[in-house]
Batch of 4 targets.
Target 1
Amino acid sequence: MSSSYGENLRLTVFGQSHSRFIGMTLEGIPAGKKIDPEKLAAFMQRRAPGKNEYSTPRSEADVPEFICGLVGDVTCGAPITAITANTNVRPGDYEALKTTPRPGHADYTAQIKYGGYQDASGGGHFSGRLTAALCIAGGICIQLLAEKGVRVISRILSIGNVFDEGELTESTASKSFPVVCDGRGAEMKEAIKKARAEGDSVGGVIECAVLGLPAGLGDPIFGGMENRIASAVFGIPGIKGIEFGAGFEAAKMTGSENNDAFTVKDGRIETATNNAGGILGGITTGMPLTFKAAVKPTPSIAKTQKSVDIITKTEKEITVTGRHDPCIVPRAVPCVEAAAAIALYDALLGRNKEGYQI
Amino acid sequence: MSSSYGENLRLTVFGQSHSRFIGMTLEGIPAGKKIDPEKLAAFMQRRAPGKNEYSTPRSEADVPEFICGLVGDVTCGAPITAITANTNVRPGDYEALKTTPRPGHADYTAQIKYGGYQDASGGGHFSGRLTAALCIAGGICIQLLAEKGVRVISRILSIGNVFDEGELTESTASKSFPVVCDGRGAEMKEAIKKARAEGDSVGGVIECAVLGLPAGLGDPIFGGMENRIASAVFGIPGIKGIEFGAGFEAAKMTGSENNDAFTVKDGRIETATNNAGGILGGITTGMPLTFKAAVKPTPSIAKTQKSVDIITKTEKEITVTGRHDPCIVPRAVPCVEAAAAIALYDALLGRNKEGYQI
Amino acid sequence: MSSSYGENLRLTVFGQSHSRFIGMTLEGIPAGKKIDPEKLAAFMQRRAPGKNEYSTPRSEADVPEFICGLVGDVTCGAPITAITANTNVRPGDYEALKTTPRPGHADYTAQIKYGGYQDASGGGHFSGRLTAALCIAGGICIQLLAEKGVRVISRILSIGNVFDEGELTESTASKSFPVVCDGRGAEMKEAIKKARAEGDSVGGVIECAVLGLPAGLGDPIFGGMENRIASAVFGIPGIKGIEFGAGFEAAKMTGSENNDAFTVKDGRIETATNNAGGILGGITTGMPLTFKAAVKPTPSIAKTQKSVDIITKTEKEITVTGRHDPCIVPRAVPCVEAAAAIALYDALLGRNKEGYQI
Amino acid sequence: MSSSYGENLRLTVFGQSHSRFIGMTLEGIPAGKKIDPEKLAAFMQRRAPGKNEYSTPRSEADVPEFICGLVGDVTCGAPITAITANTNVRPGDYEALKTTPRPGHADYTAQIKYGGYQDASGGGHFSGRLTAALCIAGGICIQLLAEKGVRVISRILSIGNVFDEGELTESTASKSFPVVCDGRGAEMKEAIKKARAEGDSVGGVIECAVLGLPAGLGDPIFGGMENRIASAVFGIPGIKGIEFGAGFEAAKMTGSENNDAFTVKDGRIETATNNAGGILGGITTGMPLTFKAAVKPTPSIAKTQKSVDIITKTEKEITVTGRHDPCIVPRAVPCVEAAAAIALYDALLGRNKEGYQI
């Protein structure tokens, strides 16, 4: 199904940008797991809009209300459902989109797919708003992974043509604008401001790493960690590419350059390099699982654009109004972590199934 | 499950590199579809080993034997199972891999995951040999898509640091070494020969396009065409990255550059550019669906490499023997097409489900 | 997953007896389908408690609030989520059940499965209360089936040892106490009152028929209509048996008695009898699909019962307090219809997938 | 999908009655499990045809050939595929069935569903022959359950109107004609012979019990053991009803009669009776899991029957030739055990997933 994910757990996200609530149901989480609501709220805040100059002025509290599945803060084995209200809704902005679709948005494809019955308001079910539901589920999985010593971290690798330098570490990931080099971070912010000033937008790349993973998670062929993570990460609107470890760079290397030599460090088997991004044959090696995701520039821009009238099949100009981020990359960072955490916790439950207790 | 794919059809691939047979079962294909065995054999031949100087000398006939699901050449509605024998097996090559894993291979992760019970011979279930099963299913789906006017084409975009030029077209895709610029093709072949001569290997990038697609295939969030295709394509061993349309380049653009303006051409709604790769909101636009997949260099190289003895936890050198491609990119081309075709035919069946007949 | 159902649609039910809300998400319903809220409310009322002398005094409004998936009353293609509040909650009744389980309830198995973390209050996720969520989904599917001329009807076949007479028809199904013979109905009500007066409870059998079905729904082997319907109907707490057509009686017949002869009636192929219950090889014949479901007597009874203290492993008497139906059969009737409708609409979408438009 | 089963393992059965092979793929079995081929063959023999006077003269060796997934006799973690040839095929018997369907068979529904493209020969994918594939998978799961001390036993409860007496025990289950009372067994055999002599057939009921189960297997709502077992057992052609524990009899009882009192026996919590059939809230109690399955009389009978010509829509008589069992109940016994074992091993893997090691 379009809005469900998972093999050993099952996540369903629901809601439209301007429906009464959005939310998620997470099935398959073992009973007896404590969920820290404050940590979850703090995680959600990293995605929340309206916080600073480079995000949308739309403001949503984004506090998940758990309506079932927990007793106090502890999972009871039943499906966990949390909802959050869409409080700051301005439906008037989106009237004409069914016949004159916004370039880069799902307006046109939704119109074709749903025959005009889609909820066009605010992008409906295609809205980035739905990533709040993803982050509820992901925030839970991050806490469950942390119990096992697994941490999901990430940084902004680039905004437009500005690239960060250095290596992603946990201290970088904890920054409010997570870049290794704050000077490059300042340039990135400038690029965003400039795009906004020009009625335009800008994209970027997010790097994510999962640390502390045991070896042995994932399955061959279609159940590989690449498949599973890609399948979750492409659930975030605007993601157009993903690569693991050296990724597209590996395609330029020779085998002797790309292969990660095995080595022993502190009595533990590791690899000297990590071009594989911690995955061989779809299965975790125990090295950091690393990947990069490409985020396209926000399609909603103030500049006038060319579109068509679907009914009359004539060309037509369109000016997108409404409130939008000139760059969604900063807010997409926790979404990417959420998607990765869900994929990994799902794989970890699958590892249990085989008779290993992690 | 690790070896199954699909929502509206279900593909299961089975077999190990050196088991008696490998094969696949494909459920959910409507009854009454004619499968042309010669076209399928021709498609399989593009993947088959042992054909030329830049592939492994291992030779397998790779003719699928349909053991059920067809009456004559026509689908009967029951699951379709085809098998193909592993005739050219040399198990002796792989004895020591359980304790001394080959860098870049799944030997180590298989050992951890399966506790030593894995079939290590020839890479077992992780072997590229399994892509023959993928190609049986993909070859069927390609024929079923062709009935609807949908064509899946691809080319080698790069080998190592040699990049093709120009645009992918159907005539390029029909070449035995599918590149637009044959001069670049010659350079690519040189790069492969050089790698072989040095006991090394080389990777590359494959570009794929699906033409003639109707708009409206795919679903929002986790059911997007990006999710579905990535989930299938990462089922091919050695794929480490995928990007759709402009992909990672889109991350460098502004919204006004990246957004594809809608336009009317011959009375049909199209986009002036196709940075979206024919997918908006996870759903096909009717433009060519385009993506690129990064293939890592073959991990099996003749050069001596560093590994470890898993038991004694001491470092150790390893020299990989056996028969291997210095570059799997040419043989991976039909595999990528197969994976894309399976994902698309699955989505097309899902579109039927909604009450549209395609 | 435990709380999900469906192949072509996906239903997830969530909530516990005393959580803030219970609800359901239904994915995969095509866009553009009008849902009549009054018809749905009327259907829900048939299940609602507190209406008469033979049901629990617990009163719940049971009006589904749709929080997403509809625009006005019309499906928009996104997952449909509806919730309904648990307003009449008395958690105090259920304190001691974790250590002293009620016979016939899930208290003991929940304790073992969830290690004491289950929500014991009101039976938690095991409560019959969850069938309200099932009825939301089922009520929607009943409306969608009605569009195609398909009607789901049922009657009370027996309560305790009192059996109805005659054949199930649509006029019987529309009665508030759906039995053919009202005299037998009066006896059934007496049996319920008697059970209540004795601090006891009573079970019964529900007969269900689906009329107006096209031939060709369902799949062989595990996808048969028997498998699909059984899988949904056993989702209703207290159902302990199901039989299709002649069912267990067929086991006593000879083939010449049990086989339904084909015949032509008004130019349409039918069978002269319907011992098959409208299903051959798992697939609908176009005759009424008929089945019977056995409902056990409500396990909550006022009489003192024998239980154990799980901790001390000593025997112990238990008296169940709280508000309970002396017979859940009347309220289970719409639940059985709901389950059947969900299974059939799911199969009908699957039939579309194959290229037939129903 | 029609031919797949399972949540934590995945079984796919494939083949038609007269295709070259039938077979099955079983994914998700942990690595390192020894499969005893002789025990499996012995189990298969219990289903095999042609053994005695009351079964079909069709003779198939029914020895599963494992083509992958095992190394020696030990599972390697890859999907396990086994096939068995259809050696004794007489396609000529089935020519006219597409236009003149046999009563009680899937000929008519297959014709409608597959539009005439079905493999009609021998019943195609609907044939009881496919239960050989089910028995391969079930025979494996029975061995895996036995490792945990779980035994699946069954008996013939009735043939036609002859009912066995007494309680099902392991010694009964080990008989070649498994009934408690051999006198009744003799009567049953007489009933079968009589049916054959009259060109007719007869049905029956199979009782199955699973002993040695831990408490805690299964899930609430749709994941209950009733749902899971019913979903598998209805995969056997000819099964028309299933009931758990007291089943339909429970519907006649009062709560005080039907509720199973908890008690302590040898320091272990049990129930004094087992009307629940070892399942409360869908989850195993640790008591024997018991159910009964109704088998309809073989639809293939020698007597002339009424059918229709589908094309001309005129009535027509039909005489079924071919080789058929006058009673499939004895051969269905291991099939029911197989289905139960698959459902239980699947649930047991799911229990592992939650962090319990069984």
Target 2
Amino acid sequence: MLGRRRRLAILAEGSFAPLEGKTAVGVLRYRSTEVAAVIDSTRAGRTAEACVGLGGSIPVVADVAAAAALGADSLLIGIAPQGGELPPAWRATLRAAIERGWDVLSGLHRFLADDVELAALAAASGATLYDVRRPPAHRPVAAGRAAAVEALVVLTVGSDCNVGKMTAALEVRRELDRRGVRAAFVATGQTGIFVADRGVAVDAVPADFVAGMVEELVIEAARESDVVIVEGQGALRHPGYSGVTLSLLHGAAPAALLLCHHSGRATYRTPRAPGERAREVARSGEPIIPPLVDLVREYELASAWVRPARVAAIALNTLGLDEADARQAEAGTALATGLATVDPVRHGAAPLADALLALRPARRGHATAS
Amino acid sequence: MLGRRRRLAILAEGSFAPLEGKTAVGVLRYRSTEVAAVIDSTRAGRTAEACVGLGGSIPVVADVAAAAALGADSLLIGIAPQGGELPPAWRATLRAAIERGWDVLSGLHRFLADDVELAALAAASGATLYDVRRPPAHRPVAAGRAAAVEALVVLTVGSDCNVGKMTAALEVRRELDRRGVRAAFVATGQTGIFVADRGVAVDAVPADFVAGMVEELVIEAARESDVVIVEGQGALRHPGYSGVTLSLLHGAAPAALLLCHHSGRATYRTPRAPGERAREVARSGEPIIPPLVDLVREYELASAWVRPARVAAIALNTLGLDEADARQAEAGTALATGLATVDPVRHGAAPLADALLALRPARRGHATAS
């Protein structure tokens, strides 16, 4: 990961749970062979599988020393606190890792390499601090150019933050790979970048250039792919992140959307105060997520402001449901929306891939006779 | 301006024309008494009035030396190139100003204080480089809190970039001042900040925090005002900037919108290639601006994703039309949309203020008997 093969210790202190340590869970799902241990002193002694249902027997340990004993050689920050600051409580852990000469891989908005103390420690120990959220220096402005690529461009969109947009994109990509379709994944967030080893964390890009950055990534990915799957961010109705969502929609200019939803999620996750972490617990006064049919219409409408797109299918995150309830949730959503619906993690992404490939235009030069 | 009373030389090299030097024109309109000269070697010898219809006899000169002879003591960068980079051709002008000890006021995305050569020159001469686009360090995430303020929150929105959103906001504020209504202007772009001496250039803020930043500004402004008028940015259908627009809409959570349009503008201004300046000339393939009635509906719909808002009136920029055509454009737009329509620069903002005040709720504690 990021330059060399690693033995990662993933820092998920106090948050190594299915819906909290989003980055930790994503890395465990897609690059678990590079993970030596997870650090969460509140869950030390358990396995990753026991905590988040993923990662098999990878041990959860209390600190850097315990992870080192298991062969770890790099620290990956596996939690994304709202606001992206470095929680003061983690500083000792980071110091311990850097003093051992471990590289640190971070997706925080606050860049580690700009932290005077940590940068000095890293210089002394020879460690490298990777801030994958640091935006590229150039400043492209989007102009709808991605609408012209020959590849089928797909964007995952969501009913809220943290519903499974990255996972749906990666699962569809894997399914297309399996079918021999040349498919590219465009990472737009820190976890996606850790998984794909490339991409841009668009939410850290100055707002004027988010759409332009995505436009560039799509055009580049389309050169060698027949399907380009862009990782979505935020949600059109989320008061904090809707702008990022619309920038992706208009910058990527997709022809197809996959709408992602966490089954049972009823209200938007908004912070109570600046810097507060997103929470699972619904609170009175939180905005209500409307019916998915309304969201389908809204996403198609907002797409059409730049380029018309269709919601091709629904990726339903059924985490927390038993098998019967999950099947029922899928069937109920399909009935309510008229769209193919599946939890791609639980039941495979084949229905999503089918729905997307049905939208792929006949290739130029291979028009069918009519 | 920015700390002290100044005698500004405004740099508008090659662009001191009504629709190009947006920042130059804005500063001339609202703070002309602080302007000593405008630098544009292609128009030297003319007056500001002759070039942009504003600024009376303020002279246009060829260079810093000529501006110095007129008493200038600070350089304000009056052009906003697409992409926000410092055009190489301006470097000599900046050097000349800084070597004289002039402060430089910049709204470029590329910060002057981070430019090694210019920063060293400024350190040597005692000049200060003001980068008004540098975002605040904190990182607020919006949660729809601005919807709860008691003041009437108004956002100017537009059919495109550069149609008069800042000007409409400032003209309405002036009209409300005249009527004794406590009104605040919230600047969200570099020109607005130069005019108001405060604000945040939201398009330079990392995308995740744009809505949160605006939410903060609105809540703060509402403490001492009955009407808060927020300067809008971009347009919902602009492929490059739509995300910034939606962030403002959801962060400010206005109850009322003023839709701004440049009469006769038919297509969106999008850059042909990254870094290229926006142009006036319509080009084939540029997206077409839909009828204003459609835009009214779209802005109201997108607002309602977080908080319902009504378009109260239309501010029509009739620059370039003669008086009869301007009156006809206003009447035609009012007829087509059913909304009060006026060019606030040409005919005053009274109709806009009337329409907004009609939307102001009865003040709490002063409910009218029914």
Target 3
Amino acid sequence: MENLIRIPKPVYILSSASVVGQHEKNGPLGEYFDIVGDKDDTFGCDTWEKSESEMQRLALSRALNYACIKDTDLEAILAGDLLNQCAGSSYGLVSFETPFLGLFGACSTAAEALLLSSLLCSSHMKRCAAVSSSHNASAERQFRYPLEYGGQRAPTAQWTVTGSAAFITTSCKDDFSKTAHKVEPVPIITEALIGKSIDAGITDANNMGAAMAPAAADTLLRYFRESGLQPSDFDIIMTGDLGFEGSSILCDLTSTEGLDISAVHCDGGMIIYNRETQDKHAGGSGCGCSAVVLAAQALRGIRTGQIANMLFIGTGALMNPTAIQQGASIPGIAHLIRITADIV
Amino acid sequence: MENLIRIPKPVYILSSASVVGQHEKNGPLGEYFDIVGDKDDTFGCDTWEKSESEMQRLALSRALNYACIKDTDLEAILAGDLLNQCAGSSYGLVSFETPFLGLFGACSTAAEALLLSSLLCSSHMKRCAAVSSSHNASAERQFRYPLEYGGQRAPTAQWTVTGSAAFITTSCKDDFSKTAHKVEPVPIITEALIGKSIDAGITDANNMGAAMAPAAADTLLRYFRESGLQPSDFDIIMTGDLGFEGSSILCDLTSTEGLDISAVHCDGGMIIYNRETQDKHAGGSGCGCSAVVLAAQALRGIRTGQIANMLFIGTGALMNPTAIQQGASIPGIAHLIRITADIV
């Protein structure tokens, strides 16, 4: 059965907003993020979990602000994060007067939320929000050790990004009339492909890139088989977040199947930090990583005319520490959306 | 903005299957569940987490079997559970060759998954599966204490159900031609209302019913305001799972607003165990509770002609133990679908 969904009715990304911490501000994309936290990444809160929730609140508030709409103008918020029971989203977004759908896609959550938002906006709804987050300090103590422990990191380990992004999707072209995007190209989601959960037998929780790359390869191979397009039809194919290790594996896996994406591939985890100066090993990861890179790098590229046609593939590792302790391997997943530039 | 979604194209529940443990088998609905585990609820696995995953695998396999279709005939599986990072679903469903969307709605997950499945089947897809689960032993040790500890339970505490259910939704009426449901009435999802996250300030993690009841009241009040219908238009209004405590609060909250649902209200958590003999305090709960009660009680009622028109409201408490330890209150959520009987 063919799984590629060609979205029949235009769904626009009306606005996006990104919130990051200090390490991300000091990376190559630093100047493009919308909100940067205080110097210790607490966002004014007394626990790291509350800091993460506050980042989601800030991201959605700013995205609504950019879109010149209120929370009650949204028909649904789709959101998720890495905290147990997705508490970052539940607590971060409870103050918004909007129907709420919780998602769990691990680091693929931004893509999953945008994918579902675009399907809902092209059918039953007008406007949705897609929100996700991760915070380095809340993730480290939940998945590994509290920061104070000073645990050693493996060379293949990725650094959980302190970041949150929110995206407003709409099927109403008129919504742009209130915003600043009157003349710029705007992003439009035209296709979607839901990922399959793929378990390639990786049991090393310090090498998530290797666990997720087979899922990304499966999604990309299905996409190009079903769409009939070529990698050269795209300005960029952005995965997020395989990091250096997983990206290298992905390009190997696809080229073995005759699909060479290397000329247009980039990965959120590879470009958010400076590899020479920031000591982040295999790159960035976390629900916030691909989300803030999409907002600050790719969508900016569409709005400034540098990108006209792209694929965004959010990758996630569907594990938890208990499963790893019990010797389970790590299933990966990768959800794809195609984003093109459109003049409103 | 009105939030009630009237589903424009018929979406049928093609099949459903329920899997439960011994306590559930010994309850009033015992004979109606499709699969009952071994005497110690391990489902042949060596950890409780693996047992829960196995229940999801069994539930979806059986539902596919009843529907006379294969996993590759589905365009998406929407699934979630209570384990950290929804690992019950990720590991339980990885063997199916189907695009996978992870959800987190706590105990509202069955309703959230059915709601989204019905929206997708009425627009971009033909067939989806909605799956959820909980296991008493994996939930107890994750949220509270390992069973071996023998912790005392508060009178307002609910008992996490060992159960999983899978539902196949379809927009293809012809799909019934292969199944046993040729002449019976079949369930059709006609309306959906996404819940808002409501924080009423409850901080007692032993009283989830009180935390979720305000969200259920909000959803029901919005539904009856927007639909123009009355509770008497329905054969049953089934919440799941508020238990005895939460159900009583719900009826109080809605009647204060002039909406008396008491004549037709029932709750999955109240009917899954025998209150006199099974010592389950405030009733059942967990992602599996409302799911297996919907499959074994309500949908059976539709197929046998006893129910023609019902509301199913899945309720969830969007918290985690860390948030409770940090003094946070517990937001609740309640997603609604309307299910009516249709002759194929």
Target 4
Amino acid sequence: MFEQVSIIGCGLIGSSIFRALKKNGSVKKVITFDNDKSVSEIIKKENLSDKIVSTPEEAVRNADLVLISTPQSSFEPVLDSVKKYLKSGSILTDTNSVKKGLDVIIKKMNLKNISWIPSHPVAGTEQSGPRAGFSDLFRDRWTILTPDSKTKHSDVKKISVFWESMGSKVKIMSVGEHDKILSLSSHLPHVIAYNIVKTAMSNDEKTKKNLIKYSAGGLRDFTRIVVSNPTMWKDIFINNSDLIIDGINKFSKNLEEFKKAIAEKDSKKLLEIFENSKEFREAIVEAGQDTDKPNFGRK
Amino acid sequence: MFEQVSIIGCGLIGSSIFRALKKNGSVKKVITFDNDKSVSEIIKKENLSDKIVSTPEEAVRNADLVLISTPQSSFEPVLDSVKKYLKSGSILTDTNSVKKGLDVIIKKMNLKNISWIPSHPVAGTEQSGPRAGFSDLFRDRWTILTPDSKTKHSDVKKISVFWESMGSKVKIMSVGEHDKILSLSSHLPHVIAYNIVKTAMSNDEKTKKNLIKYSAGGLRDFTRIVVSNPTMWKDIFINNSDLIIDGINKFSKNLEEFKKAIAEKDSKKLLEIFENSKEFREAIVEAGQDTDKPNFGRK
């Protein structure tokens, strides 16, 4: 596959990638860089990287694949600092949840003989940092690639094999399609999760304490993802704002209809909503995207 | 404790109660009734009840505790059919998620020398029916009792010990306080879960398929509770409609503010929302109401 892969940004995603590569042995050399020294210390201590370097420039020299897995707001400055050192003929990728805007940055950089192939592994947990990563994070999860039509097929093939080596399934789609789907499958649910917690917290102290105490009645399910990496999510909301706002508007319109059914005590309408929802959940479990164990198999 | 406990309605909650009682041996005799014959067949086959009866009247004769764990819309007809057969001095309880309205029904029944002590075990899974029940469902979970001030203290003590024998922690509060807390900790989250699934489903077939496929990005967390018992949830939304609508209105107001922060790409405001949310989640885990394992410990 690749002789040398360089990973810039070693949080949950970056560190899961080098853990997976170390495990499957498909890459000869993995070089890592993170601008937070304490992150590099952890990687060193746990012996997770073949070489830890102290500048992004050092990281990319001789790399056949450069993977930038920082929050999206760091993508441009990182790329700007390494662009002169990228190896001719190498592949450049990322792991961002929003693809809009990245192509514009790439164009501005005027890269010569570099294959830019955006990647988005749709996998993660609510935890952050190099200790949160694990080698099986991508197993049976999708990775979406959004190369433009001019990209060399053999390079798309190479990066596909790279993700597949970590157990991921690969899907190719356009930037527009990717950002639309993710706005509804991931970004909107995060907005809603933050918002229901915000609503719970906008009560007096006594009520707030009670909501925490009795959260097993449903609320707790919505609170898991609110501890996800704040910088990453701030970037996502800003970079995909138009589509997320479309999603919020659709959600609000549906909520008004739902409220009406509750206010009018419309049993028929309520049961109809429940019945349709059930099918959707069952399809998610069927597709292997969630466990069918009660309470997510919580212990 | 009690010599004879009679359970009417043997779904997830009812069947978890008799499984727990059978395990802890604290009750001499457990009698069960369900109006669905296939439910009684399952109970018989798995030998879960000391006596399965074929009418609710038969169930309550000689019972020291009668527990009605049917959806709320069946509470009145069930009680109407058994009221003449309740043993003098016995305790009557339920397991409903909304307490408003039950006291009115009780008053109408004009019961003589019966201690009515409403119970709500804040525990459950998204599954329904007698096969979904398990003896540890109530372990370390709260049960809220909402007796009125005239209720005999010794009876409140008895029913508290009953729930504690199954591992539950007991809290006493007013009907109003109970319904307000649950409207936010349980009922509103269910509305939101149904609504986000409704929003996902109001797309074309291709998009819907993609949302299922990539639901691991966040959406899947919201789909678990939408398969919960439809009749039960229809009853909850109808019986607690005023407080749930208050909750929806607060949620919508917060969502408009949130949308504004996204539209204005207000990093500071977004990071502030995330920071506050994080504290709330941490408090839930701290209170033992959820696991701290990544992805709820999903396998």
